[in-house]
């Protein structure tokens, strides 16, 4: 650790604020400040002083703030830390959340000076482009990029608009636009097409989408570059359309393994990298990508065999595949760096043994491959692979699968794991990353991970106290106690796929006693729901402010308490059904109906939890009614039936989903269960599940519109529902 720390240490001489030259770094920081703090931006000075490593220092006095740093990204981090620590302000990643504006910039206790402990800070996941970002327009992306800069992100996946590049490439190789658009999936599923998992699903992709995404991507790349964030674009991994076999009958193109139980029609096709055609397509792709988007950066996201079985597990085969793929990349860009998800090694860890991983990684020179240790809060790869065999890597926190809204996160364990990687991670440990699949959660854990990339004096308890203060907008002991309880007793378990409670799943009578059953819902909840009730009571005790984060906390904790209570009621209902206790089954079903209604009412007050907003955002991309309907169906599909065996993988406790899908399904379940007991007949589970599946598919195609703007007061309704359920 000492050696690592020394390499990053820079000597920073404190100097008085002065008029900084109007270089691009300062201009980018000023522009960010004007977007985030329009009422105070004129009182903030930025000074650029180049240095060997990232650092910032700031001081505020007499109503003015001066931030000195080595670049725009570090300036943004300095601004954010000033806002968090002295203004009690949180800037969220949603543009809908207004940033509280301080009337006067508070003075600091002298100069605050910090430097980075890790040069790389990574953000996003391929899946985020399907579970959150698929329908975003520029104003939403603009806020997200600002959030990334404020939190020190230095590299981010930038997959938007990739299909336009491929369209140009496949045209060059003799395919028609109709063939190309049919090869692509629908917008919500493009992430898995790009990861070489599925073709065609929910397609064909409209040309209007392909064209519009190009313009959006150009804005994303320009803004990220301006703020010191390297946009990570793609390179050729060998994924080709099936039609290429007809055009090049002698090429070694083979079908890859099935993914997620999709039909064989949707399997992807793979071109052997040793083929001359592979080298040509790789060159064509990078040429066309550069023509459309410029040289965005020299880092390329390139993931071979993600969640699929390669043609061979022989180490020599994998070594040759990697060597040929690397050769194709550096021929087009001699400065290229290959960014690889270590999730690949985790997902099929039975076959990705250390020897196989080593063979796969060996052909790429050290310093030219950057590995994302993807899921470190649950399973770190670096200790199992001799620190990833010397390749540079980023310790990453995933934290959310599918955009599910269930509260998960192992706060203290994550802190301990980060302490350990600093001590044991080796010199090729280069920083931190956040690889969340969706944004339907609070940003606080991702802010914590990114904060750990910087030198600070506070411990975890102090950091949590600061979170409470800035979410509330004021210092309040009750709110601090609530957040302390959350992190001590509720945020104690890392996220797992299909994480959720029963409210956002389809019920099974046969689930009795099974710890992990269809849709992945766990029978056991890792925390005591009474602790969550205690937190809810502390959060709604007083209306502390109107900050977006305070309103979110009131809704989120109340929602989770009621969801978990519903979950517990369900398992009690199963026990009562087994005992043929009709009276208890009826009583529990009535309480569960109330919980469904009350959760739906509570989440309707906050934009985080609106299916109507999701659907509306999808429709706005359509250039005509047919496209609008297509986009909405695509949007509805991914958060319900998905495809393959992934039904409910992206379950969310959203207004619109509860009343449109889950409430009807549960009401029918209660009716059938009660009827089976009343008539002393066996419950027909198969019949119910077939009915429920039909209802879910019907919801994806219906045109019922749900609210797309919050309704009601988040605090008042949360307090009212707390008072109701605290005495039940």
What features would you describe in this structure?
There is one protein chain. The protein is an alpha/beta fold. The chain is 47% helix and 10% strand. The protein contains 27 helices and 17 strands. The strands form 4 sheets. An 8-stranded parallel beta barrel has the order 5-6-7-11-12-13-14-16.
Question: Topology, pairings included?
Answer:
Elements: H1 2-8, H2 24-36, E1 44-48, E2 55-61, E3 64-69, H3 72-86, E4 112-115, E5 120-123, H4 128-131, H5 138-150, E6 155-157, H6 162-172, H7 177-183, H8 190-194, H9 207-226, E7 230-234, E8 239-240, H10 244-247, E9 253-255, E10 269-271, H11 276-293, E11 299-301, H12 315-332, E12 337-341, H13 343-347, H14 354-361, E13 369-373, H15 386-389, E14 392-397, E15 409-410, H16 411-424, E16 429-434, H17 444-451, H18 460-472, H19 477-490, E17 492-493, H20 529-539, H21 548-578, H22 582-603, H23 611-619, H24 625-638, H25 657-678, H26 685-701, H27 714-725
Parallel strand pairs: 1-3, 5-6, 5-16, 6-7, 7-11, 11-12, 12-13, 13-14, 14-16
Antiparallel strand pairs: 2-3, 2-4, 8-10, 9-10, 15-17
Helix pairs in contact: 2-3, 5-9, 6-11, 11-12, 12-14, 18-19, 19-20, 20-21, 21-22, 21-27, 22-25, 22-27, 23-24, 24-26, 25-26
